[in-house]
Amino acid sequence: MDLMLTLVSGIAWTVVYVEAIRVGLRDRTYAMPVAALALNFAWEATYAVLEFREGLSPQGVVNVVWATADVVIVWTYLRFGRAGLPGFVTRPLFAGWSALLFTTGFAVQWLFLAHFGMHDATRYSAFLQNLLMSGLFVAMYAARQGPQGQSLTIGVAKWLGTLAPTLLFGVIEDAPFILGLGILCSLFDLAYIGLLLRGPGGPVRSLPAPSR
């Protein structure tokens, strides 16, 4: 059961990342809220290295796949992200802000590691940032006034990809804190799916290219 839920989570989140790359390139934008992207990339890169230092494992392989996909999503943010910002955000300002954001993502992950140790840090940081991401997807839909750079596939796969480890760690391993966070993630994910199902139809327009 543990292996099955790990694989479900791995496959579902891989679908999220592949679809985020596809939609981001299609709409010339980034398809994951950037604060959550920074934390996710830092989590996956950090634990991919740590998992493989302890030996080959299914989760380690999954982390490498996720981190590799995240590199491409980060590129879509760096390539298209400035287009959605106010005109006073120059290239140097955007670069500096981005560097600070992604550096902070790694710092947060390493602080979790230092305080909780690897076993608890992987779970606590993952579910907390997952809850943040769930809320930010709803906020991104509102900010973009529709499904620009988003898709129902991302919403459903994210929900299933989070539900599987919620069952694994929250129910099977009897961790009430993780279970509570997982339930909250599901509530936001289902709300996001509802927005995508009931939102405005029609073709999605690309964001304008950033001015030089």
Automatic annotation (TrEMBL):
Its main location: membrane. Keywords: Membrane, Transmembrane, Transmembrane helix. The chain crosses the membrane at residues 61-80, 92-112, 124-143, 177-197. Pfam families: Pyr4-TMTC. It is a multi-pass membrane protein. The keyword Transmembrane helix applies. It is found in: Membrane. It comes from the Bacteria. PANTHER family: PTHR42038, TERPENE CYCLASE AUSL. This is Uncharacterized protein.
